[in-house]
Write a structure and sequence with these properties.
There is one protein chain. With 196 residues, this protein is α/β, with parallel strands linked by helices. It has a single domain (3-195), classed as Rossmann fold, CATH 3.40.50.300. It has helices at 15-24, 32-42, 44-54, 66-73, 77-100, 134-145, 149-156, 162-168, 181-195; strands at 3-8, 29-31, 59-60, 63-64, 107-111, 126-131, 171-174. The longest helix has 24 residues, at 77-100. The chain is globular, with a radius of gyration of 17 Å. The structure holds adenosine-5'-triphosphate. Adenosine-5'-triphosphate is lined by residues 9, 11-17, 113, 140-141, 144, 175, 177, 181.
Length: 196
């Protein structure tokens, strides 16, 4: 049975960077955040539930207006909880069927920013936390998204503090610009193969 290695960490910690390294070495990667957006646009049942709850304005020209939806849910934790309740079970199901095509492989990676905040972790066999201090993550995310620190900080506040994630991790990668990344990833790859 294919093992599922969860990859998580705060905004700008380097999850996608780490997953890209594995993808370049032919490991399949499921990015839960990207897939959630895809499903919000393409799963008709989910779309209709989102429209019922948040209003038809969240779609513009038939495409999800993520800024509009974010402006609703990031101001109101009840709305955010409802969004998660609607979207995450659909992502959960979608991941289950996605991984079937890789049954013959030793492992796949599942990248999710909200691994512990949702029940995403239940679909993993081990979890790797990518860690970087907040200041480093803030600088990276602002540069990447060409946005103001306040916007990133508001999103960070919706995530579990990093020390909670570190406590629950099976393996930690320090992507803090002090420790070299590639040797750590080579070590992680060996560790993953030992788990399989
Ligand atoms: P998010 O949760 O916001 O999607 P993420 O955890 O996936 O973020 P990445 O997108 O991988 O993080 O990295 C954030 C930014 O920091 C990217 O522009 C990436 O190129 C850069 N970055 C990641 N790791 C490093 C590093 N070790 N040195 C320099 N830049 C880095």
């Amino acid at each position: 049975m294919v093992r599922v290695i969860g990859i998580t960490g705060g905004i700008g910690s380097g999850k996608t960077t780490v997953c890209k390294w594995f993808e370049d070495r032919s490991a399949p990667v499921y990015n839960a955040d990207v897939q959630a957006k895809w499903l919000m646009n393409h799963d008709l049942n989910l779309r209709s539930k989102l429209i019922t709850h948040f209003g038809s304005d969240i779609y513009e020209n038939n495409t999800l207006n993520t800024a509009k939806l974010a402006s609703i849910v990031f101001q109101d934790s009840n709305q955010l909880a409802t969004l998660n309740k609607l979207v995450h079970p659909v992502v959960f199901e979608h991941f289950e069927s996605w991984k079937q095509q890789y049954k013959h492989l030793p492992f796949v990676l599942k990248e999710a920013a909200l691994m512990y905040e949702t029940e995403s972790y239940l679909q993993t066999d081990a979890i790797v936390v990518i860690y970087a201090p907040m200041k480093v993550r803030l600088e990276r995310a602002c540069k990447r998204d060409k946005t103001e620190p306040e916007t990133i900080l508001a999103r960070m506040q919706k995530q579990l503090p990093e020390d909670h994630k570190l406590h629950k991790a099976d393996y930690v990668i320090y992507n803090d610009s002090i420790h070299e990344l590639v040797p750590q990833l080579e070590g992680l790859e060996k560790w993953i193969y030992k788990q399989c």
